[in-house]
Amino acid sequence: MDARSLPAHRRPVNTVFQSYALFPHLTVAENIAFGLRMKKVAPLQIAERVNRIMGLVEVSDLAARKPGQLSGGQKQRVALARAMVNEPDVLLLDEPLGALDLKLRRQLQGELHQLQRRVGITFVYVTHDQEEALVMSDRIAVMNAGKIEQLATGEELYERPRTRFVAQFLGACNLLTGVVEQVDGTTLVVKTPVGQMRANLTRATRKPALSEIVTLAIRPEKVRLASADATVTANQVRGVIEDAVYSGAETQYRVRAGDHRLYAIALNSRPGHLGLHAGQEVCCHLDPCALILLEDHS
Amino acid sequence: MKQLLNIAAGLLYLFLYAPIAVVMVYSFNSARFGARWTGFTTNWYGALLDNPAALSAARNTLLLAVLSTSIATVLGTLLGYGLDRFNFPGKRFFSRLLYVPVFIPDIILAVALLLFYSLVRSWLGLFDLGLTTMVIAHVTFQIPFVAIVVRSRLVGLDPALEEAARDLGANGWQTFTHVTLPLILPGIMAGGMLAFTLSLDDFVVSFFTSGPGSTTLPILIYSSVKRGITPDINALSTLIILASIAATIVITMLQRNQRAAT
Amino acid sequence: MNAKPRDAEVQYGAHLTPGGHRLCSAITSGPAVLWLSIFLLIPLVAVGAISFFSRGAYGEIELPLTLESYKRLLGFGQLGFDPLYPVILLRSLALGAGTALLCVLAALPLAFFIARLRPRYKTLALTLVVIPFWTNLLIRTYAWQILFAPESWITRAFHYLGVVNAGEPLYPGVLAVAIGMVCDFLPFMVLPLYASVEKIDWSLAEAAMDLGANRVQVFRHALLPQIAPGLVAGIVLVFLPATGQFVIPDLLGGAKTVMLGNAIQQQFGQSRDWPFGSAIAFVALGLVMLGLTCYARRGAKEGPSLL
Questions:
Q1: Number of domains in chain A
Q2: Which residue of chain A comes nearest to C15, CA vs CA?
Q3: Residues near A162 by beta carbon (within 8 Å), at least 6 away in sequence
Q4: pTM for this entry
Q5: Do B88 and C29 count as a contact with CB atoms less than 8 A apart?
Q6: Rounded CA separation C1/B158 (Å)
Q7: What CATH class does B51-261 carry?
Q8: Does A143 reside within a domain?
Q9: What is the pLDDT along chain A (298 residues), one digit of tens a residue?
Q10: Could you give the count of Cα atoms lying within 13 Å of B101 in the half-sphere of its Cβ?
Q11: Does the CB of A74 have a partner CB in chain C at under 8 Å?
Q12: Where are the domains of chain B?
């Protein structure tokens, strides 16, 4: 069924608005009952369902208050209840936690997650906060200019992004653009400005042609740094450490190789940690299995 | 400097209220003539009840105000809503026309209507001067005020509220009656009260569009003043002033609720 | 909860078909538009039209069409140059301008005073300014007759200042009319001026003082430009409507203070020269429309909120 062909008030979808949009002239209970009243549900049934949902989101003791007397988090819950009580097929949440402070947001994220599990309605949750998306969802759709670029689990989006936008959207990413020199069933050889790269094609979605321009992506934590004395073979880039930033559990490196920069992250707890510093010459290893072939290129 | 400002402001407020105060004070003056204060009395208020001209004028004034306010509130509210939500050819011209009765000197509107009535009378025989012509005239200058007040209330309405109502299954009519109307009701009431006050206070337009037997209180006061101010006129005026002040306070409170509710 | 700004995504009536849109528009705006077209637009047009007609022997309106009324207004009547009406026109403009000027002088301290109050008292102060405006003008005006009576101490004060002789009332007279007008129009000046004053960025004044400006210079260079929009709005709202006043010059003025409003009343009253009265009214209307257009061009969207 294409919901676009139905006028708004007849779609089996309910929305939780970013501004909550609670009716200021109605009490909490009346707000929640609104949708049921519009559908002309029997009054007894309305009372029962409203009470049940108020208990579920824990706003029972606020039933007689008006929205003007509620806090941000309370309004949030009432908006949720008002939408859910109608038992829609899909619940649309439009940045519902955007107006709250960080601590409250974290708390409600967890509550919303549990609530969804309990109620079983599909939540379509819109947010610009990547961490929130990763934490709360089963599947994520990354959108760019109105189009969905990739729809997958968080892990899939991170480990196997399909486009440059997605790769750079979730976390940091190194991008290497070059020309295909060789391609067979399992391996791809690309000549990039920082050297020749071999990439494993077993999990790629397509097979590029010879001489095609492609972009390979690799996450900084998959770039391994080693001392500079080894000979340079494929998938190795020699360079100089420009910057080393210590951030507790890890150290972030920025390596200069010719005109290009590579970003690497190394866990400080790893055995054999070299204690690299700025100015040192290093060799970066890019594992063929960690290089991702993107569907578009720079 | 600050003291100077406070003193100046105090004097100015005094200046603004001097006329009102003087009328109210002198309504209790037991002197029949002149501005000399000779003693306190409430006789003049009682005398009003024995004054058939005053009672008849009061009845006309009230009738006129109630009739015109009712019509103007309905038409003005519909107009305010229509201007905010819909388009029609000539809307921009008409929106400007709406402000004309608000700003023009009332005598221009008064003679324009007098002229209009007389022309129509000579062609169609309608519009003999009397209560009907006065009601029509009052409605004409009341509609813009009601429309402006209702429209400004609509502009302040959060569009997400109506969107939410539709999301929850309300159709157009249900959205209007359950969400929009309750929220703009204070605006409609404020507009109505405003229209009522305007009708109550109007002199010039009433004067030119009235006929025999449709004298209103302001017209009565005017002809009395022309003959010489008497204390019972002051008593009458005091009552009218108090009514206007009460209405203004109600309107201000209604408007204040609007700011609190959003 | 804040009202979201209207954005293109939420379109009212988006659920309506074009036909439905037209129907709703007709039901809502239609009746009032019809009413105002008949009872506002046509009468005003009629005034303009009738001003070109002639006056019959017994006061009827008749052809031929002529510019006689306008010529008379400018002083060139049938009997040679008669300054009566040009003088009335000029006097109305002068009194209107004078009223506007006095209102500015009075409104400035009031506006600054209110702007400095604690927020809690601001609305109260503004409401107090507005309340007199919503009471009956006729009553407020005749009250000045009491206040200007020979024995009142206002008259006595002016007597000391040498403005008036002993034992004479202050009205009818230009001064009385002016005072009455200022009292009536003051709220029209205070509200727009206050709107500007409230938004003043005082850091500009501090910067000016820091750079060595004296009080006058600070006002002229740091404050005046900021309140200019409010001043202009107020002047437009007072000056032109004041020229068309009727009640105040009628009650507080005499033969020497006849203004446009009185002249109109005369022509529609005892003189029964409706074409001429229409011409005067049309000129007064034109002046006000001029002011309104200037005001609208300055970007005032909702008009002054006198409510």
A1: 2
A2: A7
A3: A149, A150, A205, A294, A295
A4: 0.78
A5: yes
A6: 9
A7: mainly alpha
A8: no
A9: 566 666 666 678 898 988 889 999 999 999 999 999 998 989 999 999 999 999 988 899 999 999 999 998 899 889 999 999 998 889 999 888 877 788 888 888 888 888 888 888 899 999 888 888 888 889 999 998 989 989 999 899 998 999 999 998 888 899 999 999 988 888 889 998 888 889 988 888 788 888 889 999 999 999 888 877 666 677 888 889 999 888 888 889 999 988 899 999 888 887 655 667 888 888 888 988 888 888 887 6
A10: 29
A11: no
A12: 1-41, 51-261
